[in-house]
């Protein structure tokens, strides 16, 4: 089955240009690469395609390429496995001539060839001794860029070649008939509309690699394209850096305590705030006393959600400004988001009501683009249900332990059974599976393998039930004390970036 153009990213912008003077170039995101010489027009096409296949192999995915040669222009889809698919091809209109020229093998339209032996160069770690296209141009079959077949209805009135003669009585050959018919029926070219013309480059220039050995070579002066892993990371960063129209609200829920809800809230907020999706608020929406304040940095006061509720009239007035919130929220100086703590009075005699959730929601959405809500363990409580009413995206954290996983499943089941908005949140949920916080303590060898296998088993179990599942590796920086994003291991940071991107794709 072929690939549709909409299934293939248009980034980077790639063009393959073959000129009638015997030269050709491939332009990738604005960077030109000279195509090796060829004896014929088809040789130049093949050599250009070989460079594009090499680009697809580097990106490890199909790419779209705009093609242009003396005979026409169109679009191809080029796969890393050397498969070439023709999306479109439009022959160039023939210019008016007083007499049809004699047809030679060089001027005749090329036949549609099933396969052409060409191969693409493998990605190379350094510019020294690169393999040439000519050295590898005989190993792979691929479809060339053919002109589109002639529509039979267009030439329905054109007689057979054997019946056509020129004005001077000479017989026109089979190869000359289509060209003569086109020349006779072609209309003069008209001036192009200024509204349909632009000199701006639509695609951004692909920045060189900054990571791994490719990044090292770039810093030494050898410009290298980024790896597939670096491109994936860049795409996740772009996804979480969006500014959506209107605030977005995320609820982090699991009916079981110890399921990693609070670390999930902290790390999602850190990713969104660090990459420009802010201002971001972490809101502890526990019924009484939650733990979000224990795992984050405290500001120069002891204010909680109840203090904000008491001052909501002033905060919602036209005279209020964002700086007034500093009296109620606790700013995270390194991770750049704010925390609204739950009530921490010693008596613990106040349970947040649905009406108070509405008040906090009005204040929060006035001042923040992104609101990530921590929650308690009671799906029946008024504040929990009201939180769900305001939620745009549901996140269900779970550690690699069967009771936490079962509680997560029951949480989703409860929401699905309620129907409507709640059921839609459950179907579109993102499940984040973290390796148990004590999975690595005293574990070696087979025990560690079993712990990782359990995390994978739980992730696989949730995959058909929700929109996305992301795994987070064990990290000692998440076990105790305040959580700092910079204290996490690089693999853990990358996993949380992927988790935040999965969440953002649901907005």
Number of domains: 2
The number of distinct β-strands equals 16
> What is the residue-averaged pLDDT?
81
- Report the order of strands and helices: EEEHEEEEEHHHEHEHHEEHEHEHHEHEH
* Cα-to-Cα separation, first versus last residue: 31 Å
Major beta sheet, strand line-up: 11-12-10-13-9-14-15-16
What would CATH call the class of the largest domain?
A: Alpha Beta
Q: State the helical fraction.
A: 25-40%
The CATH superfamily of the largest domain bears the name P-loop containing nucleotide triphosphate hydrolases
Sheet-strand content, in percent, reads 15-25%
Question: What structural class do the secondary elements suggest?
Answer: alpha/beta
Question: Which residue ranges are poorly predicted, with pLDDT under 50 across at least 5 consecutive positions?
Answer: 96-143, 147-169, 171-178, 180-185
């Amino acid at each position: 089955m072929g690939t549709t153009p909409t299934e293939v990213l248009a980034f980077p912008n790639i063009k393959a240009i073959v000129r009638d003077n015997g030269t050709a170039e491939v332009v990738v995101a604005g960077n030109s690469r000279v195509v090796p010489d060829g004896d014929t027009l088809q040789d130049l096409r093949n050599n250009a395609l070989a460079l594009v296949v090499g680009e697809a192999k580097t990106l490890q995915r199909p790419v779209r390429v705009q093609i242009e040669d003396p005979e026409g222009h169109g679009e191809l889809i080029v796969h890393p496995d050397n498969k070439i698919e023709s999306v479109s091809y439009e022959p160039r209109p023939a210019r008016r001539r007083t007499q049809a020229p004699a047809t030679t093998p060089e001027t005749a339209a090329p036949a549609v060839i099933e396969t052409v032996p060409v191969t693409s160069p493998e990605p190379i770690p350094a510019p020294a001794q690169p393999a040439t296209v000519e050295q590898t141009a005989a190993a792979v079959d691929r479809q060339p860029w053919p002109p589109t077949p002639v529509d039979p209805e267009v030439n329905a009135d054109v007689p057979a070649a054997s019946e056509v003669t020129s004005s001077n009585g000479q017989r026109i050959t089979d190869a000359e008939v289509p060209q003569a018919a086109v020349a006779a029926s072609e209309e003069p070219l008209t001036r192009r509309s200024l509204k349909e013309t632009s000199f701006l480059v639509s695609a951004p220039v692909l920045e060189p690699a900054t990571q791994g050995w490719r990044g090292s070579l770039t810093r030494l002066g050898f410009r290298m394209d980024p790896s597939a892993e670096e491109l994936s990371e860049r795409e996740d960063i772009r996804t979480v850096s969006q500014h959506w129209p209107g605030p977005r609200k995320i609820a982090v829920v699991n009916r079981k305590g110890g399921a990693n809800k609070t670390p999930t809230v902290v790390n999602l907020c850190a990713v969104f705030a660090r990459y420009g999706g802010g201002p971001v608020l972490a809101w502890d929406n526990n019924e009484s006393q939650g733990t979000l304040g224990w795992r984050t940095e405290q500001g120069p006061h002891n204010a909680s959600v109840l203090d904000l509720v008491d001052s909501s009239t002033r905060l919602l007035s036209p005279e209020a400004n964002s700086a007034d919130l500093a009296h109620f929220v606790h700013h995270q100086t390194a991770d750049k988001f704010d925390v609204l703590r739950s009530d921490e009075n010693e008596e613990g005699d106040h349970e947040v009501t649905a009406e108070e959730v509405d008040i906090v929601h009005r204040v929060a959405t006035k001042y923040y683009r992104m609101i990530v809500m921590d929650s308690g363990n009671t799906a029946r409580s008024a504040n929990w249900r009201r939180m769900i009413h305001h939620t745009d995206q549901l996140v269900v954290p779970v550690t690699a332990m069967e009771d936490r996983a079962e509680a997560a499943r029951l949480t989703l089941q409860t929401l699905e059974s309620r129907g409507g908005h709640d059921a839609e949140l459950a179907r579109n949920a993102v499940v984040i599976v973290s390796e148990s916080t004590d999975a690595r303590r005293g574990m070696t060898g087979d025990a560690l393998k079993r712990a990782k296998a359990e995390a994978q088993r739980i992730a696989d179990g949730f995959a058909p039930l929700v929109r996305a599942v992301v795994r987070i590796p064990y990290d000692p920086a998440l076990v105790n004390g305040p959580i700092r994003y910079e204290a996490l291991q690089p693999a853990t940071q990358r996993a949380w970036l992927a988790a935040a991107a999965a969440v953002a794709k649901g907005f």
